[in-house]
Amino acid sequence: MERNCKNCGSLVYAGKSYCADCGAKWIEKRITMRNVGVDFADMYLGIDTKFGRNFIDLFTKPHHVINGYIKGARMNYVDAIRYVFIAIFMSGIYMFVVKTFNIDITGGLANNDNFYRSIGYTEERIIETNKINAVVFEFITKYQGFIVFMTLPILALIGRITFWRNKKYNFTEHLVFHMYTYSHFVIVTTPISILLSFIDVDVLMMWSMLAYPMLFIYNTYCYKKCMYLNWQEAILKALIAVLVSIALAVISFVVGILLTVIGVVIYKKYINP
Q1: Potential cystine with 51: which of 44, 57, 179, 214 (Cβ 3.0-4.6 Å)?
Q2: What global pTM score does this model have?
Q3: Is 30 exposed, middle or buried (CB count within 10 Å of its CB: 0-12, 13-18, 19+)?
């Protein structure tokens, strides 16, 4: 018999199991734990699933995933937003493990005294540097989800400026690119971070320090694939991206100082003269 789709309201003809308009499956059975488990396994477990294809193809052929999503081919892969939330979920598991097992993830940062002495730091400066490092590292690990959302637009801006003359991607499409690549990087590296947190915190610290260089290399590889560049062009764009990143960092620093000075002047002149 004919019936209306429960998702979009369109007509689902007799003998059809899927809506012709939105693609939703017609479901009549009541939900059970078994149904939930099967749905989860179908979507996330195994190689021949959306998540499995996403995970493998973002290594081997990222242009199929990213360009496909941008062009509208979205049936075979996990969409960009959902992939970001999977990455945030993975980060949450990491913090859950750290808190549950009372792992001192900042301990490795306090063991670099010999290195700081070798570059001429005084004992007082070493103590202050260790304190700052510990605070920064703890903030990064505690608020990874927030950092993901803040980092993605910045990476997209860097990408848009780097490829300013190349109109293949607009800003939003660069954002989609980094939603996939950044999330994939988090999903891949988080299990390694969890393992290292049990083995050696010093090694975990070194691994964390290598994270952004590795992400940069991975993004270069993905841009090469998605923009159909040769290696010379990809390396040149990578160098331009470094310069753009430095320029944005300097501009942000200068703007921050100016805003601080203006705030102090306003406070002293008008609020607390």
Answers
A1: 44
A2: 0.76
A3: exposed
What's the length of the chain? 273
Q: Are 229 and 223 in contact (CB under 8 A)?
A: yes
Q: Which two tokens stand for residue 64?
A: 């199929």
**To which residue do tokens 């792992």 refer?**
103
Q: Which value, to the nearest 10 degrees, does the dihedral of the CA atoms of residues 233, 227, 160, 172 take?
A: -170
Q: What tokens were used for 104?
A: 């001192």
Which among 185, 169, 170, 188 has a CA at the least distance from the CA of 228?
169
Rounded distance, CA 69 to CA 71, Å?
5
Q: Which amino acid is at 261?
A: V
- Placement of tokens 């470094």 in the chain: 242
Contacts 24+ apart (CB under 8 A), 136-145: 137/105, 137/106, 137/109, 137/205, 137/208, 138/105, 138/106, 141/94, 141/95, 141/98, 141/105, 142/95, 144/88, 144/91, 144/94, 144/95, 144/186, 145/88, 145/91, 145/92
The mean of the pLDDT values for the chain is: 83
Q: Which residue has the higher pLDDT, 183 or 32?
A: 183
Question: Are the C-beta atoms of residues 45 and 54 closer than 8 Å to each other?
Answer: no
Helix 231-266 to helix 144-162 angle (10° resolution) is 120
